[in-house]
Structure formats: C-alpha cells, structure tokens
Amino acid sequence: MTAPIRSFLFVPGDSEKKIGKIGGSSADAVILDLEDAVSAGRKPIARQMVAEFIAAESGAAGPQLWVRMNPIDTEYALADLAAVVASGPAGVMIPKIDGPADVLRVHHYLEALESAHGLTPGGIRVLPVATETARAPFRLGDFADAGISRLYGLTWGAEDLSAALGASTNLDRTGEWAATYRLVRSLALMGARAADVEAVETLYVDIRDDRGLAESSRQARAEGFSGRIAIHPGQVDTINAAFTPTPEEVEFARRVVEAFSADVGTVALDGKMLDLPHLKQARRVLALVGRE
Question: Which residue range or ranges hold the HpcH/HpaI aldolase/citrate lyase domain (predicted)?
Fold first, then answer.
C-alpha cells in the first residue's frame, strides 16, 4: 500500500510569490488553484504560470503538484485542462460536482489529453470536492460503482454547500458544524471508503488556532480520514503530525501483522481477541508511515 497524502496546501495559481515558495513546503501535496483564488481576468495567466511551474518541477523533490480546475459546467474548465495536462500534474481537484457523472466527464477528457501528450494513461489522479451542491450528497454512495480508476479520494466542503442551500451559516451555536454539515461530512467519509479510496477532511478556517486544528485533525484521523486540506502554510506541519501514527501505534500495528502471519482468522494479543478487521486497520496504520 502507498502512504496516503496527509496534507494538501492550496496556493493561488496566479501568485508568483507564493508559487515560488512551494519547493520549501513540507506539504505532501500542493494544489495550484485556478478556481476561487483567481479572478476571471487572470485565469489565462494563471493557467500559463501553473503549467510552466509544473513542467519546470517535473521529477524534482518536493510536494506533489495538483491543480484545482474550474467547475466542469463553466467556460473555463476545458481551457484549464488543455493548458495544464501536458505538464503532467500529479492530480486534478474537481470542484462543485453533482455526482460521479461529472467526474467521469473529467476522466474522459483526461484520457484524451494524456493520450495526445504521450502521458501514462490514468497517471493523473482526481479528487472531487463531492458535497458542494444540493444534489451531490445524495450521490456519494454511487462512487463505489462508478468505476473511476483514477479516483484518488473524496473530499467535502461546507462553504459552497451552505450557499447552495441558502443557509446563513454552516455552524451551530457552539461553533461546531451544524447538523446538516455533520451529516454530509459523514456521508463523504462513508462514500470514500465504500469506493475504496481516500477520505480527505475539509479545511480548518481559523488559521490562528493551531491547537484547535491539531485536535480536529486527530479526531478526523480517528474517524477514518487520511489527510486534510490546508489553506495556510502554517497549518501544514500540524496537519502532517496529526495524520501520522504515533510510534506506539506503529509498533502495535507491526505486532498485529506479525500475529496474523500464521494465516489464522483470530489471534490473542495483549489479552484481547483480534480478528481480520483489526489486521486491516493495522495494515492501514503501517501504510500511513510507508511501512507496507
């Protein structure tokens, strides 16, 4: 198993200053944004800057380079893909989808562009933001049968969804996600795991609250998310730490895998009976640190 991406850092696609700092980032992946962070008038220059940067960094050490395209139903979407695919990004984030059909459209566009540019078929992964329209949450389970081989995972978002619902806020009185958004978050997690892909936690808005980010991220990993979106470079190390198993977790996982090496269905370890779901979880912990 390949270790999943712990941190996805957003960087505006038209900011030469911020793009210039990517090489020194500790993020596992950087998402060069062509959507919300770039005004309509600057989208052409952003496409050019992003494509040139990815091409120049091909094979270099550092974060994976992803691109957030514009929504598939806008005039910008195909221009985004046509501009950046030739440079060979690691992946494309797809915003504001209604369901797997939109992702399949992008998949087919990528197939054609990969072929045209002599790239490995399916080499560019996709990560849809799968909850930003009112229709989208109802279709999260459909990803399990959609057969999108390049699907890296699913992530979710609350801001565009609250706008789509006409809500004045997406938070409850305590400052936590309101019930609607907790439901959508859970469905995104289950939809991802049903499709056997990664579940990526949404952003943490308060960039000054490192303690809150750490606690929220640890809880997300405990629930089954494997990584998180960062909106500020200062959030990356905290996210990476939260989504990295502790030495104690790694050691216990190693012992669980060893205990099942005799090809048995259940084992006793530290006074507890463990079965195959425990083995699966142990292997996942080791995958998070690149051990399996």
Answer: 6-233
